[in-house]
Amino acid sequence: MGSDPPTRSELLQGTLDMLVLRTLSAQAMHGYGIAQHIQRLSQEVLRVDQGSLYPALERLQQKGWATSRWGVTPTNRKARYYTITASGRKHLGEKSAAYEKVALAIARIMAG
Amino acid sequence: MSLIDGWRHRLQTWLGRSRFEQELEEEMRFHREMETSSRVQGGADPEEAGYAARRTMGSEAWHKDEVRRAAGLERLDSIRQDIRYAIRQLRRSPGFTTVVVLALALGIGVNLVIFRLVDGLILNPLPGVANPERIVMVENRVLSYPEYQHYRDHTAQFEGIGAFRRRIVLAARLDGEPERVTTGMVTGNSFTLLQSSPVLGRALNPQDDQAGAAPVVVVSHAYWQRALGGNPTAIGRTMQVSGQDFTIVGVMAPRFHGLQLTSSSDLWVPIVHWPLVAPGGYARLDMATFNWGWLTMFGVMRPGVDLPDAAAALNRVGRRLKEANPDQITDNYELTLVPAAVGVMPDGRTTMVQFFAILTTVVLLVMVLAIANVANLLLARTAHRHQEIGVRLAIGASRWRLARQFMTEALVLALLAGTVAVLIMLAGLRLLRGFTFPGGMTVERLGAGADPLLLSIGGAAVLLTAVVLGVVPALKAVRSHGMTSLRGNPGRGGRPRSNLQSVLLATQIALGLVLLVGAALFTRGLQRALTIDTGMDTGSVITATVDVGLARLTPDQAGQYFSAAAERIQMLPGVEAAGWSEAIPLTDDESVEFVTIDGYVQPGGDDPVLEVIDTSAAYFDAVGIPLLRGAPPDPSIALRDRHVVFVGAAAAQRYWPGGDPIGRRVIIGGDTAVVGGIVGDVSYHSLTAEAPPVLYRAITGPPLQNRLQNLTLFVRTAGPPSALSQVIQRELQSINPAVPVFDIQPFEQRLGDLLLPQRLGFKLLGGFGTLALIIASVGVYGVVGYVVARRTREVGIRMALGESAASVVFRMIRENLWPILAGAASGLVLAIAGGRALAGFLYGVSPADPVAYLGSTAILLLASVIAAAIPARRAARVSPMVALRSE
After folding, report:
1. B31 and A50: CB-CB below 8 Å?
2. Bigger pLDDT: B792 or B54?
3. What is residue B334's DSSP assignment?
4. B313 vs B158: CA distance, rounded Å
5. Does A12 score more than 70 pLDDT?
6. Alpha helices in B755-791 (DSSP H)
7. Contact residues on chain B for A12, CB-CB shorter than 8 A
8. pLDDT of residue B492
9. What secondary structure letter does DSSP report for B490?
10. According to the 3-state scheme, what is the secondary structure of B374-385?
11. Separation of alpha carbons B713 and B661, rounded Å
12. What integer is the mean pLDDT of B38-52?
């Protein structure tokens, strides 16, 4: 969409945003839960550290793709829960479609 | 939708900072606890688990910072930091800050005041009128009432045509004493045509202007406030105008003042009632005669009609009218139309435009001077901070950040200055509130508040100033070299002062000189004007004006009144002479008549037109006009023998060249008289113009028959004139209480009013001149001080090697001299060019008056040398050891 190719950190940022939104699209979660979810589902391949996660969550809120609310965990602790918004879902759809296209292209090249 | 949510979140974060921090902390803590408890559940020791969790998580502080950065708080914080730093820097040098803020605030504030005046009088002269661009006025001719009616009814190109008489001063009374009000006679459709709405009650309408309509008036907002107390019950009240009852039906909007530029009315009365209120006996004729013009006509053009079309249409109608009434309309005329905003009072307006053009230029000059000065000071100060800049660059600050810091400082200064400027503007407008311009317009009527337009202009000025002041130091900071800055003495022995600073300094000197010269010229002009020989001896004369029209005296009664007054007042203790005149010298009162002079034939055949002034016997003595030849007026006839007239020296010269006017016959207004004497000339209209030829006629006779209205009594007192004001008032009122007495004031005071533009100019320019001198001196002081400070080491070396302090000082001054001299030279050139523009306002003083120029230059140069000498001396006094060590 832009004229310059995205930088490496921007790529990673974009990917992280996508993963977080995908996680939230299933259900609302707190930050720790999101990190655990990604870690588990990727079978420990992807580890999200706090330095990336929480800024990403802040950015998602600034763009209006997620909202947050304080709630209570099953273990009676106060935690901040994030929910995806309608525009967040829309963005997720676009991002994952783009991502699939790229992944498919890479797979084809690798297959020779 | 997402955008709104996003911004809502952003705002919440920025505004609720402490809550943000609190929640961030809680979230981090939660994460940490979860990490710990998951390890504990995996069987670890709780304390170990805690440490392990912390280790995995890494630096919480750093994570928090990342979140803050994502939230955009980092930038907010750095801006806040910049502002706080800027404020701290400014507080550290309070003298500098005060000078800068004051200089800027004065420059901006004064400009705002002048802009408000210019806007009200020139740029937007028709407030309260909804469609000014479609309103046109007849410029070259006043029309008669029947003509107006015809044009009104027959010119289809106009939505409507109205007319008004030039404002007239009438006597009006509410409950108490009568007072003079300026009254506009207008046609009933005027307000509808102008689409001006009243703030209270209703405006006049065409029904009010029909024969037999009930007499109603509409008052101006200012009058309503002043005389009716701003009370809503004013509607429906009765007031007397020229003794007739009128009902007040409406109050107009504050800034509305009709179509007459530069002057304003207190009341507006429908034209149909002119015979009721008019002084003199001609009013009934006014309404019915074709040949007597007294109305200024205006109209609203239909959409799609332009000015030439409208003018052509009017003139077609005019021609047809003339063909239909050949006996009644005797001259062929073509009407010229002008847009209403330009106005039909070219003289008054041109003078005022000139006046304001000069004023605006002066004020803008002061502002540029102030900004140049401040810029120079800021530059000097930036140079002082070389070390600070070097350190900051060395520890990694980006140049952009540094530049931003300087711009923030400039912005804070500018904002402070802007706030003070608004205060200055409000104070200035309040000070000027009572001021009346030539023509009767007051500042009050212009509206002296701070409206949105003015404030936004002020805001723009502030921003502009901030940018101008901030950019240069910022650029310098960005371009400076790190290492040499740390050493603190870049370009040692090199150029002592940047080119920019020299130019700024020269500019300041030049502008300062221009302003000083202007002030000097005005001072000299005023001096001259005050001492000019008016032909009268005005020191101990007090005047009082009466209006017999209001009392509706018959000519005989009026004559008795004037006689009795002259005799009785003459006999009061402390009075040397008391005489009546219908014209006040040096005002706009003008009364000319055709005079048939025996033995003189004017080229062209018409009788010459002289200024004819009706006076009583003791007038010449009262006012101090010397009798040059002939016999003085017979004192036993208080109002003078109508068969004897007196002429001024200029008239004698012109109409009886080489001969003797005494004993010769003249015929005025059907009356034959003989010249009884020659009196000295008097400047009747202006101090600079030549005295016009004047003829002094007796009050008895034609003047009284023609219902003379206002006469002014001139009383020469033995002591100070104001001491007798009460006595005179009582005496006049005791003769006939129905005759109102106005304007009892010393004659010199009235003269003072005439010189108002000069006095105002003198005060303003004098003030600005002084201000300019101070600003320029401070500028010189600042720059030289900076230069000297940078070369302290060099000074130390020189003195250690034996140079005397005096020599050091002189050299410093000499080196700084060239921008000062260059500035002075260009200033002189500018001043000479500008002086020509002032020529009209200077009495008898040439715009190239050498005293003014030499004096100003001398003062400015002296001030500059002193300003330069002070820091130079201070540097020379420092012990060489200290100087050598300083950096």
Report:
1. yes
2. B54
3. -
4. 9
5. no
6. 756-790
7. none
8. 43
9. T
10. HHHHHHHHHHHC
11. 28
12. 83
Which residues, 6+ apart, have CB-to-CB distance to B638 below 8 Å?
B562, B563, B566, B567, B616, B617, B618
List residues of chain B with CB under 8 Å from any CB of chain A. Answer: 1-6, 9-10, 23-24, 26-28, 30-31, 33-35, 57-58, 60, 62-63, 66-67, 69-72
If 0-12 CB within 10 Å is exposed, 13-18 middle and 19+ buried, where does residue B603 land?
Answer: exposed
Around Cβ B670, how many Cβ atoms within 10 Å?
A: 9
Q: Among A32, A51, A85, whose Cβ lies nearest the Cβ of B30?
A: A32
Q: Which residues of B610-649 are buried (b: 16+ CB within 10 A; e: fewer)?
A: bbbbbbbbbbbbbbbbebeebeebeeeebbbbbebbbbbb
Q: Which two tokens stand for residue B790?
A: 């940078």
Residue in chain A nearest B59 by alpha carbon: A51
| Dihedrals phi, psi of B17, to nearest 5 degrees | -60, -45
Q: Is the pLDDT of residue B722 over 70?
A: yes
How many whole angstroms separate alpha carbon B797 and alpha carbon B524? 50
> B493 falls in which pLDDT band (50, 70, 90)?
very low
Please give the DSSP secondary-structure letter assigned to residue B442.
B
B11: closest CA of chain A, how far (Å): 10
Nearest chain A alpha carbon to B71? A58
Model confidence band, residue B216 (pLDDT cutoffs 50, 70, 90): very high
Nearest CA among B281, B373, B425, B202 for reference residue B782: B373
Helix (H/G/I), strand (E/B), else coil: A66:
strand
Q: Which chain A residues have a beta carbon less than 8 Å from that of B30?
A: 30-32, 77-80
B489 with B797: CB under 8 angstroms? no
- Quote ipTM for the complex: 0.84
- pLDDT tens across B299-321, in order? 888 888 888 888 899 899 988 88
Q: Do A85 and B31 touch (CB under 8 A)?
A: no
Provide, as residue numbers in chain A, all residues whose Cβ is less than 8 Å from the Cβ of B10. Answer: 62
Mind giving me the DSSP string for B270-297? EGGGHHHH-SSS-HHHHHH-SS---EEE
Report residue B172: phi and psi, to 5°.
-125, 150
Nearest chain B alpha carbon to A60: B6
Closest residue to B27, CB basis, from A35, A61, A80: A80
pLDDT tens, position by position, B195-209: 888 888 998 999 988
CA angle B161, B163, B167 (to 5 degrees): 160
Environment class of B324 (CB within 10 Å of its CB; exposed 0-12, middle 13-18, buried 19+): exposed
